[in-house]
Each structure stands twice: as C-alpha cells, then as structure tokens.
Amino acid sequence: MAGFKVLWASEFIEAARDSYQANAAPYTILDGRDIRKVKPKEILDVLKMKPGDLDLFDGSPPCASFSTAGKRQAHWGKVKKYSDSAQRTDDLFFEYIRLVDGIRPKVFVAENVSGLVKGTAKGYFIEILSAMRALGYRVNCKVLDAQWLGVPQARQRTIFIGVRDDLNLMPAYPKPLPYQYTVRDALPWIKRIEEANGLNSVGLGSHRMLDANGAMPTIQASRPVKVESETDISRYAIANEWDKIKPGESSDKYLNLKKTRIDGPSHCISATGGSSGVAAVCHPTEKRKFSIAELKRICAFPDDFVLTGTYAQQWERLGRAVPPVMMSHIAATIRDEVLCKIK
User: Fold this and answer.
1) Left (φ > 0), alpha (ψ -120 to 50) or beta: where does 198 sit?
2) What does the pLDDT read at residue 191?
3) HEC string of 5-31?
C-alpha cells in the first residue's frame, strides 16, 4: 500500500504461512523455519544484498507474553501454547534484534502490544530499547492506536522505529487522522439487515438466518457475503449475556464479551475470539460473532485478501495482525520522512 516490495518474510506457524503464501507477491521468499535458526547472512545471500543495503526491516515478534490479559510474567522463560504450536515467545524480540544487527537495514520497525510498556513488562521494554540503540540506531517508541490511522477498530500497538546513525535522520511517525471510521462505515449493510429482518434492540436469533448451506446471508455492495455457521452464539452461555448488553457495552460476567458499537470504531479484535463459545467481540444487532468477511473490513484488510483454514484460524490471523491500513500509514511516513531524504 505504501509502495514497498516485500522481498523476504518469516512465518513459523503453518496455518499462518498458508494464508501469507496465498497473498504473497511472486518475488517474496517465505521462510518457514523457527526464527532462532535463521542467520542474517542467509537472508542477505538469498536477496543478493550486503549489510546496509536493505531499506526497511519490519518485524512483529509474537506478543502474547506481554499482553495485559492473562498471567504475563508467570510464563516468561517458559514454553507455552502459542497458536498451533508450543514455544517460548518472550525472547523473540532479541532474535529480531540479532537479525537487525546482521542485516543493518537503513530503517527498522518493530511492533508489539501496548502491554510491553505497562506494569511488570517495563523491564523488558527498557532492555529491548537499550539493545536496539546499542546497535547504532536512533530509536524512538510510541503507542499508536489504529482507530486514528484509518481503521474502524480501537487497537493500540507499541511501535519501535530505528534509523541507522550514519544517515543523520530521526525516526518519524504518522500524525493521527482528524476523523475515525465507524463499524457502519465498514459494514454499511447493517442498517439494511435491521430493516429487512425487523430487528429490535435485543437482536435476532441467528438460527432463523441460517440457509440450507449453514450460512447466514447478508448484503455487501449488492452481492451475498457468507456468514459462517460458527458465528452463531445462541447455544452458548454468552448468548444470555449478549441479550443484556447494549451496543458499545461489555459484559460484567464475561469480560471479553463485547457488543461493539455501530457508530464508532469496533472494540479490539483478539486472536482467540473465533473459538466456539469463547467470549469475544460480537455483532451489535445479531446474536452472533462477526463473519470473516466482516472482520476483514473491521481489521482493515482488503475484501479480496485470501485467508485459509478454519473459521477460528482465519479469525486468529486477523486478530494477531497489524491492520494493513495502519501499517501503510507508518510505512508511508518512513518512506517520505526518512528514506526519501537520504542523500
């Protein structure tokens, strides 16, 4: 979106690798090894580059270890379940730093959850920042919110940007937009569904909407959009709580159960929300979770972006990702304010 070519990418989780490969450009090399086994020289050799040649090195070390949800430090230093694997994740930022040291890109970007700069994780944050600056980079870090960067979702992310010292330029961040996109902007058919089905403030039981193929028909720009049967929550305990809350509210009983607003950005989409019966962000007027087609818009992915795997796996891909539109603003700012100014 910002005019960069992604030459090389790393993805350890097989299901995520399948989705990435389905959308990757023909020239993008996708490496499926554990990043701990990848050497900087191997990346440079396959790209026919020398240290210092690469314009931008972007990475998102898995961030579950620093999330404010869960036990955080109780799992530091330990192998634990992560996506479809089991691995240690709190050390992966230092693997990223190891690769930066060997590749010596002009600019690097590293992303993580906002929890990295909060509470007990601050010690890790200070250590990471010090290690980055020790490589010979001018490094800044800010927490950016996707809802102010063109995404109809409130999603805070910690963004490190480093510029190599010899370039004599400072890291640059995008300015917040003066407007927000709402769930209705992303899903303009919501009102038409309400009118067509006579929905009241409680909502319509999703069983009444299932067609012969187990999908719920909706409207997207005058063409049908599949609403997966897995979105139905009516047979789970969270359905009773859904009835009690209004759009924009969260459940007191199930803290992760949220009925998102219609005329504002969505709540943050978590990676685990696609599992059956799990409390998560739900549709504001229908007793169900969002479909994958709807989630792609809420997460600022193109409609034609290909996701593979089960409903839960596709949801996880979207819930773990940096929204592409958000990242495009970051990348475009680096392009214009740093890379285009290199003499």
Assistant:
1) left
2) 63
3) CCCEEECCCHHHHHHHHHHCCCCCEEE
Q: What is the structure's pLDDT at 34?
A: 92
Q: What percent of the chain has pLDDT over 90?
A: 72
* Long-range own/partner contacts, residues 249-253 (CB < 8 A, 24 or more apart): 251/279
The rounded distance, in Å, linking the Cα atoms of 54 and 103 is 7
Quote the CA–CA distance of 181 and 186 in Å, as a whole number. Answer: 7
- Residue recorded with tokens 């490496």: 31
Measured over the CA atoms of residue 231, residue 237, residue 238 and residue 243, the dihedral's sign is positive
**Structure confidence by residue, pLDDT tens digits, 20-35:** 999 999 999 999 999 9
Contacts of 41 (CB under 8 A, 6+ apart): 102
Taken in order 68, 70, 71, 77, the sign of the CA dihedral is: negative
Say if CB 94 and CB 36 are below 8 A apart: no
The strand pairing partners of 143, in sequence order, are 158
For residue 239, give the nearest of 202, 200, 265, 196 by alpha carbon. 202
CA distance 154 to 299: 10
Q: Nearest 5°: CA angle at 116, between 114 and 121?
A: 145
User: Which pLDDT score is estimated for 343?
Assistant: 83
Separation between Cα atoms, residue 34 and residue 9, nearest integer Å: 12
C-beta separation of 55 from 105 below 8 A:
yes
Which residue ranges in the chain fall short of pLDDT 50? 66-70, 72, 74-76, 196, 199-224
Q: How far apart are the first and last CA of the chain?
A: 24
C-beta of residue 190 within 8 angstroms of C-beta of residue 262: yes
Shortest CA distance to 294 belongs to which of 266, 313, 272, 252? 266
